[in-house]
Amino acid sequence: MSVSEKNYVVEEDQPEISVEDHRLLRKVDRRLLPVFTLLYLLSFLDRSNIGNAKLDGMTTDLGVSAASYNTALAIYFVGYIVFEIPANVWESNLLSSLCRLKNCNPQVWLPSLTLAWGIVSIGQGLVKNQAGLFGIRFLLGATEAGLFPGVIYVFSVYYLRRERCWRVAIFFGGSALAGAFGGIFAYCIGLMNGVGGKSGWQWIFILEGLLTVVISLLAYFIVPTWSHKAKFLSETEKMRLLDRLRADSDAGTDQTFKWSSVGDAFSDHLVWAYAFLFHGFSFVLYSLSLFLPTIIAGLGFKTWQAQLMTVPPNVLASFSIWTTVYFSSKYNARAPFIIGAAIVSIIGYILLITCTKPGLQYFGVHLAAAGVYTGNSLLLSWPGENVSGQAKRAVAVALQISVGDIGAIAGCLIYRPTLASHLYRIPNLIAIGYLLFAIVMTAYLWVMMSMENKRRDCLLSKGELKDETEEERIRLGDRSVRYRYRI
Protein backbone atom coordinates (compact mmCIF):
# COMPACT_ATOMS: atom_id res chain seq x y z
CA MET A 1 0.00 0.00 0.00
CA SER A 2 1.35 3.44 -0.90
CA VAL A 3 1.92 6.17 1.66
CA SER A 4 -0.94 8.07 0.11
CA GLU A 5 -3.32 5.15 0.52
CA LYS A 6 -2.17 4.46 4.05
CA ASN A 7 -2.93 7.99 5.19
CA TYR A 8 -6.22 7.78 3.35
CA VAL A 9 -7.29 4.83 5.49
CA VAL A 10 -5.81 5.53 8.89
CA GLU A 11 -7.35 8.54 10.58
CA GLU A 12 -6.71 7.62 14.19
CA ASP A 13 -2.96 7.15 13.97
CA GLN A 14 -1.96 10.54 12.67
CA PRO A 15 1.82 11.07 12.91
CA GLU A 16 3.27 13.93 14.89
CA ILE A 17 3.67 16.96 12.70
CA SER A 18 7.23 17.55 11.59
CA VAL A 19 9.13 20.76 12.23
CA GLU A 20 9.04 21.57 8.51
CA ASP A 21 5.28 21.03 8.30
CA HIS A 22 4.72 23.06 11.45
CA ARG A 23 6.71 25.94 9.98
CA LEU A 24 4.79 25.63 6.70
CA LEU A 25 1.40 25.68 8.47
CA ARG A 26 2.31 28.74 10.50
CA LYS A 27 3.25 30.52 7.29
CA VAL A 28 -0.05 29.58 5.65
CA ASP A 29 -1.98 30.57 8.80
CA ARG A 30 -0.39 34.00 8.88
CA ARG A 31 -1.41 34.60 5.28
CA LEU A 32 -4.93 33.14 5.31
CA LEU A 33 -6.51 33.44 8.75
CA PRO A 34 -6.21 37.18 9.56
CA VAL A 35 -7.52 38.42 6.21
CA PHE A 36 -10.32 35.85 5.85
CA THR A 37 -11.48 36.35 9.45
CA LEU A 38 -11.53 40.10 8.89
CA LEU A 39 -13.53 39.75 5.67
CA TYR A 40 -16.11 37.53 7.36
CA LEU A 41 -16.31 39.91 10.31
CA LEU A 42 -17.16 42.69 7.86
CA SER A 43 -19.65 40.45 6.06
CA PHE A 44 -21.51 39.58 9.24
CA LEU A 45 -21.31 43.18 10.46
CA ASP A 46 -22.84 44.53 7.24
CA ARG A 47 -25.70 42.01 7.24
CA SER A 48 -26.58 42.26 10.95
CA ASN A 49 -26.11 45.98 11.67
CA ILE A 50 -29.69 46.50 10.52
CA GLY A 51 -30.70 45.39 14.01
CA ASN A 52 -28.69 48.26 15.49
CA ALA A 53 -30.05 50.67 12.87
CA LYS A 54 -33.59 49.69 13.82
CA LEU A 55 -32.96 50.74 17.42
CA ASP A 56 -31.67 54.09 16.14
CA GLY A 57 -34.92 54.86 14.33
CA MET A 58 -34.52 53.42 10.83
CA THR A 59 -37.99 51.90 10.63
CA THR A 60 -39.63 55.14 11.79
CA ASP A 61 -37.76 57.33 9.31
CA LEU A 62 -38.45 55.02 6.35
CA GLY A 63 -42.04 54.31 7.30
CA VAL A 64 -41.35 50.58 7.57
CA SER A 65 -43.92 48.67 9.60
CA ALA A 66 -42.86 46.05 12.12
CA ALA A 67 -43.96 43.22 9.80
CA SER A 68 -42.20 44.78 6.81
CA TYR A 69 -38.99 44.99 8.84
CA ASN A 70 -39.08 41.21 9.21
CA THR A 71 -39.63 40.93 5.46
CA ALA A 72 -36.56 43.09 4.85
CA LEU A 73 -34.51 40.73 6.99
CA ALA A 74 -35.78 37.69 5.10
CA ILE A 75 -35.18 39.22 1.66
CA TYR A 76 -31.45 39.32 2.39
CA PHE A 77 -31.40 35.54 2.65
CA VAL A 78 -33.43 35.12 -0.53
CA GLY A 79 -30.65 36.87 -2.45
CA TYR A 80 -28.06 34.87 -0.56
CA ILE A 81 -29.66 31.52 -1.36
CA VAL A 82 -30.33 32.33 -5.03
CA PHE A 83 -26.67 33.16 -5.68
CA GLU A 84 -25.02 30.72 -3.26
CA ILE A 85 -24.47 27.62 -5.39
CA PRO A 86 -23.78 29.51 -8.69
CA ALA A 87 -21.15 31.63 -6.91
CA ASN A 88 -19.40 28.64 -5.42
CA VAL A 89 -19.59 26.56 -8.58
CA TRP A 90 -18.02 29.34 -10.64
CA GLU A 91 -15.38 30.07 -8.03
CA SER A 92 -14.25 26.46 -7.87
CA ASN A 93 -13.86 26.41 -11.67
CA LEU A 94 -16.56 23.83 -12.20
CA LEU A 95 -17.94 25.62 -15.24
CA SER A 96 -14.62 26.54 -16.76
CA SER A 97 -14.61 23.56 -19.11
CA LEU A 98 -18.03 24.56 -20.40
CA CYS A 99 -17.64 28.32 -20.53
CA ARG A 100 -13.95 28.28 -21.52
CA LEU A 101 -13.18 30.89 -18.93
CA LYS A 102 -9.77 31.40 -17.40
CA ASN A 103 -9.32 29.88 -13.96
CA CYS A 104 -11.10 31.98 -11.38
CA ASN A 105 -8.60 33.43 -8.94
CA PRO A 106 -9.72 33.81 -5.31
CA GLN A 107 -7.20 36.64 -4.99
CA VAL A 108 -9.46 38.62 -7.33
CA TRP A 109 -12.85 37.02 -6.73
CA LEU A 110 -13.05 37.30 -2.93
CA PRO A 111 -11.89 40.94 -2.65
CA SER A 112 -14.23 41.84 -5.53
CA LEU A 113 -17.16 40.33 -3.66
CA THR A 114 -16.14 42.32 -0.59
CA LEU A 115 -15.94 45.54 -2.60
CA ALA A 116 -19.36 44.88 -4.12
CA TRP A 117 -21.18 44.29 -0.83
CA GLY A 118 -19.33 47.21 0.77
CA ILE A 119 -20.78 49.53 -1.87
CA VAL A 120 -24.22 47.96 -1.40
CA SER A 121 -23.92 48.37 2.37
CA ILE A 122 -23.25 52.08 1.92
CA GLY A 123 -26.40 52.15 -0.18
CA GLN A 124 -28.41 50.94 2.83
CA GLY A 125 -27.74 54.29 4.43
CA LEU A 126 -29.04 56.17 1.38
CA VAL A 127 -32.41 54.49 0.87
CA LYS A 128 -35.50 56.71 1.23
CA ASN A 129 -38.36 54.26 1.56
CA GLN A 130 -39.42 50.68 2.20
CA ALA A 131 -39.05 49.57 -1.43
CA GLY A 132 -35.48 50.83 -1.48
CA LEU A 133 -34.72 48.92 1.71
CA PHE A 134 -36.13 45.70 0.25
CA GLY A 135 -34.11 46.05 -2.95
CA ILE A 136 -30.84 46.88 -1.25
CA ARG A 137 -31.17 43.96 1.20
CA PHE A 138 -31.62 41.55 -1.73
CA LEU A 139 -28.48 42.93 -3.38
CA LEU A 140 -26.55 42.64 -0.13
CA GLY A 141 -27.43 38.95 0.13
CA ALA A 142 -26.51 38.34 -3.50
CA THR A 143 -23.10 40.00 -3.20
CA GLU A 144 -22.19 38.31 0.09
CA ALA A 145 -23.23 34.83 -1.06
CA GLY A 146 -19.88 33.67 -2.41
CA LEU A 147 -17.61 34.60 0.49
CA PHE A 148 -18.20 31.88 3.06
CA PRO A 149 -18.25 28.81 0.77
CA GLY A 150 -15.41 30.34 -1.21
CA VAL A 151 -13.17 30.64 1.83
CA ILE A 152 -14.07 27.12 2.99
CA TYR A 153 -13.09 25.86 -0.46
CA VAL A 154 -9.78 27.75 -0.34
CA PHE A 155 -9.07 26.21 3.08
CA SER A 156 -9.55 22.77 1.53
CA VAL A 157 -6.65 23.36 -0.90
CA TYR A 158 -4.25 24.53 1.83
CA TYR A 159 -5.00 22.36 4.88
CA LEU A 160 -5.40 18.67 5.63
CA ARG A 161 -8.85 17.55 6.69
CA ARG A 162 -7.87 17.25 10.35
CA GLU A 163 -6.37 20.76 10.25
CA ARG A 164 -9.40 22.60 8.88
CA CYS A 165 -11.79 22.47 11.81
CA TRP A 166 -10.19 25.00 14.12
CA ARG A 167 -9.15 27.20 11.18
CA VAL A 168 -12.79 27.37 10.08
CA ALA A 169 -13.70 28.10 13.72
CA ILE A 170 -11.29 31.02 13.91
CA PHE A 171 -12.69 32.30 10.63
CA PHE A 172 -16.29 31.87 11.80
CA GLY A 173 -15.37 33.56 15.07
CA GLY A 174 -15.43 36.75 13.03
CA SER A 175 -19.23 36.55 13.12
CA ALA A 176 -19.29 36.68 16.91
CA LEU A 177 -16.71 39.45 16.94
CA ALA A 178 -18.89 41.34 14.46
CA GLY A 179 -21.68 41.24 17.00
CA ALA A 180 -19.35 42.60 19.67
CA PHE A 181 -17.87 45.35 17.50
CA GLY A 182 -21.28 46.07 15.99
CA GLY A 183 -22.69 47.10 19.34
CA ILE A 184 -19.76 49.39 20.08
CA PHE A 185 -19.74 50.88 16.58
CA ALA A 186 -23.49 51.43 16.65
CA TYR A 187 -23.30 53.27 19.96
CA CYS A 188 -20.44 55.51 18.82
CA ILE A 189 -21.73 56.17 15.30
CA GLY A 190 -25.23 56.78 16.62
CA LEU A 191 -23.85 59.86 18.35
CA MET A 192 -23.41 61.37 14.86
CA ASN A 193 -27.17 61.76 14.55
CA GLY A 194 -27.86 64.97 12.60
CA VAL A 195 -24.33 65.32 11.17
CA GLY A 196 -24.55 66.22 7.49
CA GLY A 197 -28.31 66.15 7.72
CA LYS A 198 -28.31 62.37 8.16
CA SER A 199 -29.67 60.24 10.97
CA GLY A 200 -27.49 58.09 13.19
CA TRP A 201 -28.79 54.88 11.62
CA GLN A 202 -27.75 56.14 8.17
CA TRP A 203 -24.23 56.79 9.38
CA ILE A 204 -24.07 53.23 10.79
CA PHE A 205 -24.59 51.81 7.31
CA ILE A 206 -22.45 54.39 5.49
CA LEU A 207 -19.38 54.29 7.72
CA GLU A 208 -19.37 50.53 8.24
CA GLY A 209 -19.87 50.03 4.49
CA LEU A 210 -17.04 52.46 3.78
CA LEU A 211 -14.79 50.47 6.11
CA THR A 212 -15.59 47.34 4.09
CA VAL A 213 -14.71 49.10 0.82
CA VAL A 214 -11.33 50.24 2.17
CA ILE A 215 -10.48 46.77 3.48
CA SER A 216 -11.54 45.17 0.18
CA LEU A 217 -9.03 47.29 -1.74
CA LEU A 218 -6.26 46.19 0.61
CA ALA A 219 -7.42 42.58 0.31
CA TYR A 220 -6.45 42.47 -3.38
CA PHE A 221 -2.82 42.49 -2.21
CA ILE A 222 -3.26 40.06 0.70
CA VAL A 223 -5.76 37.32 -0.22
CA PRO A 224 -3.83 34.33 -1.67
CA THR A 225 -4.50 32.47 -4.86
CA TRP A 226 -4.77 28.67 -5.22
CA SER A 227 -2.15 26.64 -3.34
CA HIS A 228 -0.35 25.39 -6.46
CA LYS A 229 0.18 29.03 -7.54
CA ALA A 230 0.78 30.60 -4.11
CA LYS A 231 3.42 33.30 -4.47
CA PHE A 232 4.02 33.59 -0.72
CA LEU A 233 5.38 30.02 -0.71
CA SER A 234 8.67 28.89 -2.20
CA GLU A 235 8.67 26.12 -4.80
CA THR A 236 9.85 23.65 -2.18
CA GLU A 237 7.10 24.70 0.21
CA LYS A 238 4.45 24.41 -2.50
CA MET A 239 5.60 20.91 -3.40
CA ARG A 240 5.54 19.87 0.27
CA LEU A 241 2.08 21.38 0.73
CA LEU A 242 0.67 19.61 -2.33
CA ASP A 243 2.25 16.30 -1.32
CA ARG A 244 0.58 16.56 2.09
CA LEU A 245 -2.78 17.29 0.47
CA ARG A 246 -2.51 14.39 -1.98
CA ALA A 247 -1.74 11.99 0.88
CA ASP A 248 -4.78 13.21 2.81
CA SER A 249 -7.51 13.75 0.21
CA ASP A 250 -8.08 14.96 -3.34
CA ALA A 251 -7.25 18.60 -2.57
CA GLY A 252 -3.75 18.39 -4.02
CA THR A 253 -4.91 16.91 -7.32
CA ASP A 254 -5.97 18.60 -10.54
CA GLN A 255 -9.48 17.40 -11.34
CA THR A 256 -11.64 18.17 -14.34
CA PHE A 257 -15.29 19.04 -13.91
CA LYS A 258 -17.90 16.31 -14.39
CA TRP A 259 -21.63 16.81 -14.06
CA SER A 260 -21.82 13.38 -12.45
CA SER A 261 -19.98 14.84 -9.43
CA VAL A 262 -22.77 17.37 -8.98
CA GLY A 263 -25.26 14.52 -9.16
CA ASP A 264 -23.22 12.60 -6.58
CA ALA A 265 -23.57 15.52 -4.17
CA PHE A 266 -27.33 15.83 -4.59
CA SER A 267 -27.86 12.07 -4.25
CA ASP A 268 -25.72 11.66 -1.12
CA HIS A 269 -27.86 11.42 2.02
CA LEU A 270 -24.94 12.65 4.16
CA VAL A 271 -24.65 15.85 2.10
CA TRP A 272 -28.33 16.57 2.76
CA ALA A 273 -27.86 15.76 6.44
CA TYR A 274 -25.09 18.38 6.69
CA ALA A 275 -27.45 20.85 5.03
CA PHE A 276 -30.37 20.11 7.36
CA LEU A 277 -28.06 20.27 10.37
CA PHE A 278 -27.13 23.83 9.45
CA HIS A 279 -30.79 24.55 8.76
CA GLY A 280 -31.53 23.85 12.41
CA PHE A 281 -28.68 25.97 13.72
CA SER A 282 -29.12 28.74 11.15
CA PHE A 283 -32.65 29.55 12.37
CA VAL A 284 -31.24 30.26 15.82
CA LEU A 285 -28.01 31.92 14.67
CA TYR A 286 -29.62 34.63 12.57
CA SER A 287 -32.74 35.20 14.64
CA LEU A 288 -30.53 35.70 17.69
CA SER A 289 -27.97 37.93 15.98
CA LEU A 290 -30.60 40.09 14.27
CA PHE A 291 -33.00 40.41 17.18
CA LEU A 292 -30.48 40.47 20.03
CA PRO A 293 -30.53 44.29 20.40
CA THR A 294 -34.35 44.24 20.45
CA ILE A 295 -34.48 41.41 23.00
CA ILE A 296 -32.01 43.15 25.30
CA ALA A 297 -33.92 46.42 24.98
CA GLY A 298 -37.03 44.46 25.99
CA LEU A 299 -35.34 43.63 29.29
CA GLY A 300 -35.90 47.25 30.26
CA PHE A 301 -32.73 48.93 29.02
CA LYS A 302 -32.45 52.14 27.02
CA THR A 303 -31.40 52.07 23.37
CA TRP A 304 -27.80 53.08 23.99
CA GLN A 305 -27.52 50.55 26.81
CA ALA A 306 -28.94 47.76 24.64
CA GLN A 307 -26.40 48.57 21.90
CA LEU A 308 -23.52 48.16 24.34
CA MET A 309 -25.01 45.16 26.13
CA THR A 310 -24.88 43.12 22.92
CA VAL A 311 -21.10 43.09 23.31
CA PRO A 312 -20.59 40.65 26.26
CA PRO A 313 -22.67 37.76 24.80
CA ASN A 314 -20.77 37.97 21.52
CA VAL A 315 -17.39 38.15 23.24
CA LEU A 316 -18.30 35.07 25.27
CA ALA A 317 -19.38 33.34 22.05
CA SER A 318 -15.97 34.06 20.50
CA PHE A 319 -14.08 32.53 23.42
CA SER A 320 -16.50 29.59 23.48
CA ILE A 321 -15.83 28.91 19.79
CA TRP A 322 -12.06 28.90 20.12
CA THR A 323 -12.00 26.89 23.37
CA THR A 324 -14.44 24.23 22.20
CA VAL A 325 -12.81 23.79 18.81
CA TYR A 326 -9.43 23.36 20.47
CA PHE A 327 -10.74 20.35 22.37
CA SER A 328 -12.68 19.12 19.35
CA SER A 329 -9.47 19.07 17.33
CA LYS A 330 -7.47 17.58 20.19
CA TYR A 331 -9.86 14.64 20.57
CA ASN A 332 -10.67 14.43 16.85
CA ALA A 333 -14.41 14.66 17.50
CA ARG A 334 -17.13 16.83 16.00
CA ALA A 335 -20.54 15.31 16.74
CA PRO A 336 -20.37 15.24 20.57
CA PHE A 337 -19.32 18.88 20.72
CA ILE A 338 -22.03 19.99 18.29
CA ILE A 339 -24.66 18.24 20.40
CA GLY A 340 -23.17 19.76 23.57
CA ALA A 341 -23.27 23.24 22.04
CA ALA A 342 -26.94 22.79 21.11
CA ILE A 343 -27.77 21.73 24.67
CA VAL A 344 -26.04 24.81 26.12
CA SER A 345 -28.04 27.02 23.77
CA ILE A 346 -31.29 25.27 24.73
CA ILE A 347 -30.55 25.91 28.42
CA GLY A 348 -30.02 29.59 27.57
CA TYR A 349 -33.39 29.81 25.83
CA ILE A 350 -35.10 28.07 28.74
CA LEU A 351 -33.71 30.70 31.11
CA LEU A 352 -34.84 33.48 28.76
CA ILE A 353 -38.35 32.01 28.58
CA THR A 354 -38.96 30.94 32.19
CA CYS A 355 -37.12 33.52 34.29
CA THR A 356 -38.63 36.86 35.25
CA LYS A 357 -35.52 38.64 36.51
CA PRO A 358 -33.65 40.59 33.79
CA GLY A 359 -30.28 39.47 35.16
CA LEU A 360 -31.08 35.77 34.72
CA GLN A 361 -32.63 36.38 31.32
CA TYR A 362 -29.53 38.28 30.23
CA PHE A 363 -27.42 35.32 31.45
CA GLY A 364 -29.63 33.08 29.33
CA VAL A 365 -28.81 35.24 26.31
CA HIS A 366 -25.11 34.61 26.99
CA LEU A 367 -25.61 30.83 27.03
CA ALA A 368 -27.78 30.90 23.92
CA ALA A 369 -25.17 32.92 22.00
CA ALA A 370 -22.24 30.79 23.17
CA GLY A 371 -23.99 27.56 22.21
CA VAL A 372 -25.34 28.55 18.82
CA TYR A 373 -22.15 30.25 17.59
CA THR A 374 -20.00 27.33 18.78
CA GLY A 375 -22.22 24.72 17.16
CA ASN A 376 -22.18 26.58 13.87
CA SER A 377 -18.41 26.92 13.89
CA LEU A 378 -18.06 23.12 14.16
CA LEU A 379 -20.74 22.01 11.72
CA LEU A 380 -19.74 24.36 8.92
CA SER A 381 -16.35 22.68 8.54
CA TRP A 382 -17.77 19.15 8.59
CA PRO A 383 -18.67 18.65 4.89
CA GLY A 384 -15.36 20.22 3.88
CA GLU A 385 -13.60 17.52 5.90
CA ASN A 386 -15.72 14.56 4.83
CA VAL A 387 -16.90 15.13 1.26
CA SER A 388 -14.26 14.05 -1.24
CA GLY A 389 -14.15 14.94 -4.89
CA GLN A 390 -13.54 18.61 -5.57
CA ALA A 391 -16.71 19.23 -7.53
CA LYS A 392 -18.85 17.26 -5.10
CA ARG A 393 -17.32 19.08 -2.12
CA ALA A 394 -17.89 22.50 -3.65
CA VAL A 395 -21.56 21.72 -4.26
CA ALA A 396 -21.94 20.13 -0.81
CA VAL A 397 -20.58 23.21 0.95
CA ALA A 398 -22.80 25.55 -1.07
CA LEU A 399 -25.84 23.32 -0.59
CA GLN A 400 -25.27 23.30 3.16
CA ILE A 401 -25.31 27.10 3.27
CA SER A 402 -28.29 27.40 0.92
CA VAL A 403 -30.54 24.92 2.74
CA GLY A 404 -29.30 26.27 6.06
CA ASP A 405 -30.23 29.82 5.19
CA ILE A 406 -33.81 28.77 4.51
CA GLY A 407 -33.83 28.33 8.28
CA ALA A 408 -32.61 31.90 8.58
CA ILE A 409 -35.57 33.09 6.49
CA ALA A 410 -37.91 31.18 8.77
CA GLY A 411 -36.29 32.80 11.79
CA CYS A 412 -36.71 36.29 10.36
CA LEU A 413 -40.39 35.71 9.66
CA ILE A 414 -41.26 33.87 12.86
CA TYR A 415 -39.76 36.55 15.10
CA ARG A 416 -42.54 38.87 13.98
CA PRO A 417 -44.12 41.67 16.02
CA THR A 418 -47.35 39.79 16.73
CA LEU A 419 -45.26 37.22 18.63
CA ALA A 420 -43.01 39.73 20.40
CA SER A 421 -44.72 39.47 23.80
CA HIS A 422 -42.70 38.12 26.72
CA LEU A 423 -39.42 38.64 24.85
CA TYR A 424 -40.57 36.54 21.86
CA ARG A 425 -41.56 33.57 24.01
CA ILE A 426 -43.24 31.58 21.22
CA PRO A 427 -40.42 32.15 18.69
CA ASN A 428 -37.90 31.18 21.39
CA LEU A 429 -39.78 27.92 21.94
CA ILE A 430 -39.64 27.30 18.19
CA ALA A 431 -35.88 28.00 18.34
CA ILE A 432 -35.56 25.21 20.93
CA GLY A 433 -37.40 22.92 18.51
CA TYR A 434 -34.94 23.77 15.75
CA LEU A 435 -32.02 23.02 18.07
CA LEU A 436 -33.54 19.66 18.95
CA PHE A 437 -33.87 18.97 15.21
CA ALA A 438 -30.16 19.84 14.84
CA ILE A 439 -29.30 17.35 17.58
CA VAL A 440 -31.23 14.65 15.72
CA MET A 441 -29.38 15.40 12.47
CA THR A 442 -26.02 15.35 14.27
CA ALA A 443 -26.86 11.97 15.78
CA TYR A 444 -27.89 10.69 12.34
CA LEU A 445 -24.56 11.75 10.82
CA TRP A 446 -22.67 10.31 13.80
CA VAL A 447 -24.36 6.91 13.54
CA MET A 448 -24.34 6.61 9.74
CA MET A 449 -20.70 7.60 9.30
CA SER A 450 -19.58 5.35 12.18
CA MET A 451 -21.43 2.42 10.64
CA GLU A 452 -19.93 3.08 7.23
CA ASN A 453 -16.40 3.35 8.64
CA LYS A 454 -16.86 0.02 10.44
CA ARG A 455 -18.27 -1.59 7.29
CA ARG A 456 -15.24 -0.50 5.30
CA ASP A 457 -12.86 -1.66 8.04
CA CYS A 458 -14.54 -5.08 7.88
CA LEU A 459 -14.17 -5.27 4.10
CA LEU A 460 -10.49 -4.35 4.25
CA SER A 461 -9.78 -6.77 7.10
CA LYS A 462 -10.87 -9.66 4.88
CA GLY A 463 -8.04 -8.83 2.48
CA GLU A 464 -10.11 -9.67 -0.57
CA LEU A 465 -10.10 -6.19 -2.13
CA LYS A 466 -7.50 -5.28 -4.69
CA ASP A 467 -5.46 -2.12 -4.25
CA GLU A 468 -6.89 1.04 -5.80
CA THR A 469 -4.82 3.10 -8.18
CA GLU A 470 -4.44 6.81 -7.53
CA GLU A 471 -6.87 7.54 -10.39
CA GLU A 472 -9.47 5.16 -8.98
CA ARG A 473 -9.15 6.67 -5.53
CA ILE A 474 -9.71 10.16 -6.92
CA ARG A 475 -12.63 9.00 -9.05
CA LEU A 476 -14.36 7.27 -6.14
CA GLY A 477 -13.69 10.08 -3.64
CA ASP A 478 -15.51 9.47 -0.36
CA ARG A 479 -17.07 6.32 -1.83
CA SER A 480 -13.69 4.58 -1.79
CA VAL A 481 -13.55 1.70 0.66
CA ARG A 482 -10.28 3.18 1.92
CA TYR A 483 -11.84 6.54 2.73
CA ARG A 484 -12.69 7.26 6.38
CA TYR A 485 -15.15 9.84 7.62
CA ARG A 486 -14.13 12.18 10.41
CA ILE A 487 -16.79 12.05 13.11
Kindly list the characteristics that best describe this protein:
487 residues, mainly alpha, globular, disordered N terminus
What's this model, at a glance?
This protein is mainly α and 487 residues long. It is built from 21 helices and no strands.
Q: What is the residue-mean pLDDT, rounded to a whole number?
A: 87
Structure class = mainly alpha
| End-to-end separation | 24 Å
Proportion of residues in β-strands: under 5%
Explain the layout of strands and helices.
Blueprint: H1 3-9, H2 19-55, H3 58-62, H4 66-91, H5 96-99, H6 106-124, H7 130-144, H8 147-156, H9 161-190, H10 200-219, H11 235-248, H12 259-267, H13 269-297, H14 303-309, H15 311-330, H16 335-354, H17 358-379, H18 382-386, H19 390-414, H20 421-461, H21 470-476
Helix pairs in contact: 2-6, 2-8, 2-9, 2-10, 2-13, 4-7, 4-19, 6-7, 6-8, 6-10, 9-10, 9-14, 9-15, 9-17, 12-19, 13-14, 13-17, 13-19, 13-20, 15-17, 16-17, 16-20
Explain what you see.
The chain has 487 residues and is mainly alpha-helical. The chain contains 21 helices and no strands. It has helices spanning 3-9, 19-55, 58-62, 66-91, 96-99, 106-124, 130-144, 147-156, 161-190, 200-219, 235-248, 259-267, 269-297, 303-309, 311-330, 335-354, 358-379, 382-386, 390-414, 421-461, 470-476. α2 runs antiparallel to α8 (147-156), α2 (19-55) crosses α13 (269-297) and α9 (161-190) runs antiparallel to α17 (358-379). It starts with a helix and ends in an 11-residue tail after the last helix. 53% of the residues are buried. Residues 1-7, 10-14 and 93-102 have low confidence and may be disordered.
